[in-house]
Amino acid sequence: MGTPAPGSVLLLAVLMGLCAPPVAQGKPNFIVILADDLGWGDLGANWAETKETPHLDELAAEGTRFVDFHSAASTCSPSRASLLTGRLGLRNGVTHNFAISSLGGLPLNETTLAEVLRAAGYSTAAIGKWHLGHHGHHHPIFRGFDYYFGIPYSHDMGCTDTPGYNVPPCPSCPQHSAATSPSNKDCYTDVALPLFENLTIIQQPVNLSSLAERYVEAAARFIRQARDSSRPFFLYLALAHMHVPLQIAPPRDRGIYGAALREMDALVGRLKHLADSCGKGNTLLWFTGGSPAKQTTWEGGHRVPALVYWPGHVPAERSSRAMLSTLDVFPTLVALAGATLPPNRRFDGVDVSPVLFGLSDVGHKMLLHPNSGAAGKDGAVEALRLAQYKAFYTTGGAKACDGSIGLEEHHWPPLIFNLDRDIQEQEPLDVASREYQAVLPAVSRAYAQALEDIATDNITFADYSKDPSAVPCCSTQHKACRCHTATSHTASLHQRTDRRATRLCV
Fold it and tell me: For position 301, what pLDDT does the model report?
């Protein structure tokens, strides 16, 4: 890894519009951490009443905090697809979640961030929850990642022997008729949650109580190997937190949820230490939330915490009100790596490096918010953000905690809120008001132009068909696909798993 350029040289380069990467003698490392279902107020840096995130609060103090940052979608698969492609689901084809029996995934003709960075000389790894297809070539090892360690979908989509909150246990069923034997009525016949290392299932069911620790260990091994190969690295760490807590901890303060927050926060703190131990200023760490509320385009469904930490490059103790999105991760990191965007397609994300460097506080003027809800929804745009205004063309249709679905309503003219005055979206503007009449033409124009841009783009469609053969199973002899492996096939990585692995670059 090269020595970072002095801050003054970096600022001058950006001001001159140069495309060269900001590390003088090499390319920066990238760590992108995506925390599933994390709410905006779950960080103490955003909400003073939150006391469970000291490491993330420290990250915010030493980097830049973004208060108007948005997930590209409000459900798991679409939000991840958009982060890794810089394109909304209406372009990349991923409009709702994939199942454990899905044959498809993120369409193979979509280019991922990992593919672009690997072509630019980076070592690449995905650790954690994938949920973009696990069958065939949809597996992450075929999508630009040199190394993969994690679970193929959400950890509540299967059973485990160490059940967390809302995750069922999976006692083995006898081979004879479990369904007709009253004594076997409690055995679980669905597939156990698998843990992959590259293409191999190394544990099924996965032990959720040790999963966070194993993620850190896998990250340490990968970073060490990248350092030893003298290559820059891109680590995409997709946490299952806070989808449902990984384990049931003794209640304290905010109970089970608070305990899960503390576990996630401690994990991020260790990743920050790993990044720093390889030389402060060599690694950009971008932390953000995934989809904080299911199937809703209200602000609580897509506004997420976001922090960027890069000593010597990204200003410390700064809060930015620029409107940004997870869509921006792709084009920004591509630009910082000195690479080029894939041709023959359009992107919803933009290079926001001037905002990261503190040279600008202007992000998107307009953002689209798709429905990205339950199976059967098409990812259509339900809401549009234009500056401080939020226009809704559709509301409702979201799933409540009790499983019920709210009434979907279509609005024409659209409901429009001024978020500067009404961040809780409680009172839409009066359609007869001067403010509404002034902003409606601009909103309508932006909406029509956005839909036209998508319709004329090179778009793809994901395969959402299902087949039992696609279910990941390490042993078909057991109802729950049960196996435990002490070692894996990735010996080249495990040869380095000694005590030094947690003290990289020191």
Answer: 81
